[in-house]
Structures are given as structure tokens and as C-alpha cells.
Amino acid sequence: MAEKKKISYGHEFTKGLLKENPVLRLVLGTCPTLATSTSVVNGVGMGIAATIVLVCSNICISALRKVIPSKARIPAYIVIIASFVTMVQMLVKAFVPALDQSLGVFLPLIVVNCIILGRAEAFAGKNPVLASAVDGLGMGIGFTAALFCMGTVREILGAGTFLSGIQTMIGSFVDLGSFNGFDFTPILEKLHLAPMTLFILPAGGFFVFGVLMACVNKIAEGKGLKKADQLGCAGCPYAAACGKTEAACANETEKEAAAQ
Amino acid sequence: MKFYIALLIMGILTSNFVLSKFLGICPFLGVSKKLNTAVGMSAAVIFVMLLATAATFPLNKLLEKYDLGYLQTIVFILVIAALVQIVEIVMKKYIKPLYNALGIYLPLITTNCAVLGVVILNIDNIAEYASQGVTYGFGHAMVNSFAAGAGFMLAMVIFAGVRSKLETADVPKFMQGLPITLVAASIVSLSFLGFTGLVEGLGLLG
Amino acid sequence: MTKKDIGAILKTAISLFLICAVAAGLVALVNTVTAETIELNGIEEANKAKSAVLPAAESFEDVALADGSTGFVGKNAAGETVGYVFSSSANGYGGKVGIMTGFDTSGAVTGVQILDIEETPGLGMKAKESAFLDQFTGKTDELKVTKTGAPANDEIQALTSATITSRAMVKAVNAARLYFAEVTGKGE
User: Are the beta carbons of B128 and C96 closer than 8 angstroms?
Assistant: First the structure.
């Protein structure tokens, strides 16, 4: 098993950033990515919350991997993830209420974020604690980075601002003075332009995500990596819960590859 | 009655789960390649959403009674996971044809955020509508869940049609696959924007 | 079923039960630590909004309203009533718009704050900007929306391409005025 292999922590950490970026390459966690990337602060807030849950659940699941009976592992993982999500939810409500307001239902929905259950099943359930923690951190940062990119594009084009609302999020921890993000709207007004609201609307979310993924595909192609949707089961959002359809899924990918 | 119609219109058209709330995107992108799988998946989702709401809505009252509201997320996800398992076992044993049609989608539904989403939103709605002086009861929650599921189905079916056209389209190489699918989803979502304000315009809510 | 099977089932059940118990315990622990802060946050937020719409008041007293909701009577340092604050809501374009409105004792609006809004960013969301909100200050009548650009005393200039949001805001302020009339017996 994987445990006998030599583990390179550097590799476990960096793979989540680009090569196996959960959002842009494995296409996991699409719902929160689209829904919370209307602004940079929102997206990064979501990313950090999910990273905390991911690292904690990875550590916990990895530590318990020999105790959890393999038949009951999915419910056990779900309980562990759900309790970390609830804890993070309460901490956010208590200390960053503005983030709770803007993430709304997507904060408890971290429970069903495919990235977290996916990493539990694909990595933490089979690897030692430290490697799992590093894997979780890398994946979490990859997720946050993708949200940051989406948020930047959508906020600048859609609202004409950058980092707006940062004061309400971290103002109580870090002294930012009167800084509350950049506002480009006065400049735009002088040019008789207005921000393209479309980009903060759901339609803009899909569009930016599509274009960003195309860019990453282009980069990956240059490096000789496979395209996102050709990764087969690793790219299947259900790989974790699916077990039974795994074979069918692999079959289908093979068939498609053959057809091409 | 007006309120029920308003809930239906909101769930299916104006605040469509997939296209404006971003819930259930994974199956929307993953299972919408063919019309029959899209319909099968959506039917399973509607079924599980109704069942999950019927189980969790009363359960929430119990949690609240004992001041355990903070356990909501854990309890709900476990209830959904258990329900899906039970339904699968029962279906396999007693309703074989239905199992053959929906069975393979069932294990995927546990991690479908649309199901947990609708269940949590139903609970949030109680407080939300109470502040407007409207009671939001079990019947409303069920209608809301059905509308959410039906909206999911509508989006899936429309999008399956769009994707079948995409198959034969001449797409630049770097946009092939998921990128062009997402851009197509963006245009479908844009068309649903035309429904915004429908409920308010018809005067269905207060 | 052999003994071995039963043993395996028991082992699974016990380990799952233990995980659940430990998880529930930890969550309960975090809950006791954070519950108080969360409650304080809610109160603080409401107080901030109340003082913002009725700056003259030092403290607020609850007053029960006929429809079961609660209004607030603002008192100055000497304990005299200086005004009233009511929260109300109406349906906008993207859902409920919840606001808090302050009135002085004569019934003039002293300020409006938005508590809850899900309108279209860049259009209806502009209702949050002070250029729109300040229009309400000083109004003493039941209000209407105008699009002409020259609002009369009982009119509010609508936001560009967000008439439904503007109407919702006006409707909510008018609802707050009804509460004012109910509490003071004035203005009807």
C-alpha cells in the first residue's frame, strides 16, 4: 500500500496547487466555487474555512484510519467532517459574523464539498498523519487560490472593486486603518463606463469558471498533462461516495477515450 | 394557495437551484450528457429531497425543543445518508424496476449539495418568513422541496439538449470539454435571469 | 449468521457509536464556548442599527406591537422619549428587503438602515448607498416612488433601473410608519 512508498512532503503539498488543483483540474467543489466567488474577500473566506475543515478532517481520519472499520468508513468520515464543519461554522458566527452572513447556506454545505470527502477517501484513509495534513493544506490552498482567481476577475469586472469588504472580515483582528479595498468605479465613471454586473450574477460565474479552466487546460497541455475531464475517476466528483459505480465510471472513460 | 404557487414558481424558475443558487452543480455537469440519465438522476433527486424534508423538518422541531439546534448539520447529513441507504435496499428488494432505473444514481445523492441545501434552506425559511408574518409549515417545506427538485430537473433536461448540440459543434481545441460546457451553462443561466421579479410582479407574495 | 459476522457487526457499530459520541461531545464543547459571543454579536448588530437610525437616543426600550413584532422607544440620557425605531420588510426583486427605520416624536424619519437585502448587485444593491437612503430623512408623509427626477415632499426618487427595489424600500418605510401611528396614535 501507499504507506510503504516513500512520501515526499514537498510533492504532497505542491500537487494541490496546479497539477491536481481540486477546482480547476479535478473539477471538485464546483458549487461553492461558483457561489462564493462574487468577491475576493468572500471567496478567500470560503477557501480558508474549507481549508481548516480539510486539514482537521484529514488529520483526524488519518489518525483513526486503523480503527475505522472499512465497511463503515463513509459514514464515519461524514460524521468527522460534519463535526469539524459545525465547529468552524460556530467559530465563524462568533468571530467573523460578516462572513457567516455572506456565505449563508454554503458554510454548512462544506460538509458535502466533494474535495473534503474526496481527499478523505483518496488520501487520508490510506496515509500517515503528517502526509495527510500536508496533503490537506496543499489542496486547501489550491482551492483558495482558485477562488481567489475567480473572485478577482468577477469582482473587478462585475463590481469595479478589489478586496471590497475586507474591513468587515478581518478589521477586528488586523488594524487596516481606513483601508477597505480598492474602488475603481470613480475612474470608470469619468470614462462613462459602468462595471459589467453580469460578472457577479450566476451567469458570469459559469462563464469565468469556463474561461479559467480553458486557460489552465492550455497551460497543462504545454506541460504535457492530461486535460481536466480526461482524468477519469480521479476527476469524477463522486469517486468518494461511488464505490459501486467506480467500475462503470472507468469503463465509460475508457470507451470515450477509445471513441476519440 | 397563493403562497404555494409562489414557492413553486420561485423554486423552478426565479431562484432555480442549479442556475441561480449554484446548488447541485456537480451532477448538473456530470450527468447531463444524455437526456435519459439526466431525467433518471433528477427523478432520484426529487424523490430523495421530498423524503429528506419529510424526515428532517419534524426532526428539527425535536432538536430545537431540546436546545440542540447546533447539531443540525451533523444530524441532517446523517439522516440523508441513512435514508439513501435504506431506500436503496428497499428498492432493490421490492421495487426492482424502479431500482434498475434510479438505483445507480442513489449513492451519488448523499454528497449532492442540493439535497442538504434544500433541507437546511427549509429550516432557514421558517425564521425568514416568520419575520414577514407568514407561517412556513410542513406543507410549505414539502412544496418547496418539490419545486427545488423540479427546478433541478428542468435545468438538467434543458442542459442535456444544449450539450447534445455541443457534441457536434466545432469548438476551439482549448475550449473543448468542460470549458465550453460551462460557457453554455452561463448562457442557459442568463436566460433564466429573465424570470426574476415574476413572483413579485404577479403579486403572489404579500 | 456466524459468530464472526456478529462480532464484525458489533465492532462496526461500536466504533461508529464512539466516533459519533466523541464528535457530538466536541461540538457541544465548542458550542458552549461560542454561544455567548454569537448571541452578543446579534444584540450588538441590532443596537448599532438602532443608534444609526435614531442617533438622539441613548437607550432603547422594547414596545410590543399588535402583529406580535417588537418596536423600540428611544430615550435620551434624561429618560425622555426622543423617538421610535421599527423594523419592517417588503419584497424586492431578489427576495425580502429588511430595514430599520427611526422616527422622531413628530413622526419625521430620522434615518433608514438596511438589515437584509439580496437585490441585484450594481442595480438594486445601490439602495444601500447613502445617496438613496438619505432621501428618506425628514419625510413625514406616506411615501410614493417617482421616476421624474424631481421628487415632491411625499416622493422618493427611484434608483435607475431598480424601480422594484425602490418600491420595496418605500413600502417597508410606510409599514414602519404604520407601526409609529399604532404606538403613538399620531399620523393616521
Answer: yes
